[in-house]
Amino acid sequence: MNAKVYVTLKTGVLDSQGKAVKHSLETLNFKEVTDVRIGKFIELKLEGVTKSEAEKHVKAMCEKLLANTVIESYKFEVSE
Amino acid sequence: MKFGIVVFPGSNCDRDSFHVPTKVCGQEAVYLWHKDADLKGVDCVILPGGFSYGDYLRCGAIAKQSPVMKSVIEHAKSGGYVIGICNGFQVLTESGLLPGVLMRNTSLTFICKYIQVKVNNKTPWTNKYDAGEVITLPIAHNEGNYFCDEVTLRRLESNGQIAFKYHGENPNGALADIAGITNEKGNVLGLMPHPERISELILGGTDGLRVFESIISTKK
Lengths: 80, 220
Prior knowledge:
The complex is a heterodimer.
Chain A lengths: L1 E8 L6 H12 L11 E7 L5 H16 L5 E8 L1
Antiparallel strand pairs in A: 1-2, 1-3
Chain B lengths: L1 E6 L6 H11 L3 E6 L10 E4 L19 H11 L3 E5 L1 H9 L5 E3 L7 E9 L14 E8 L3 E3 L2 H9 L3 E5 L11 E5 L5 E4 L17 H9 L3
Parallel strand pairs in B: 1-2, 1-3, 3-4, 4-11
Antiparallel strand pairs in B: 5-8, 6-7, 6-9, 9-10, 10-11
């Protein structure tokens, strides 16, 4: 079982890294980029759990450790 | 007063944090290893600056899971004193002992310099300062940009929990110029500047010393 977790800053929270990258893309002439948000991608390998258990556990992992929900939101996909 | 200085892998201000209460203030202190849940009967826990667990994932995120932090949280909840300096402040917000979070500096650079802060002297950590006194303290951090939601900010302001505010210049983009806050009861303080680095004249000043003297003075 694999889980892919994406953690990003919530909308409204200033992403200064994203801003710097957007600016850099502009200087490369990619003028169509209107916004850049930078986040984390975390890949987990899981064993001995069903898919629905895995989904429940990964959600708990995000809440307890992988994301800081004061400023970050998360989404994940679990696949066999 | 007995101080306990927590040592995480990657702490690098633990020796300074030990030196000031003992050699400068004449108090007792012990080191508290992160794997050890025993707080050895200390009155005041210091979470020092540094890069606990390499700042992996988020600053302070891994440290909050360590055995010593479970005891520190219990100690704080029963009214014991806890001060988190720099990385220690980040550990306190991650642990939920203080509200909010410390984000990356808006400049995206590590900032190491002296700054001015205005003191709110109505906390157990600042009672030796004058009301609204402006002092000079060193900062050295990459993630000192304090953020919390509006409701929390209003609560911090109305309860007088903002112990230190940047004065003149806000170096890192922190909300409402916040440099340090306490919890509601006032027994937990977190701050980005380093009072332990400026507590002796030989090291350039003593503006930080009264943080230690203030808390020591609360012990009957």
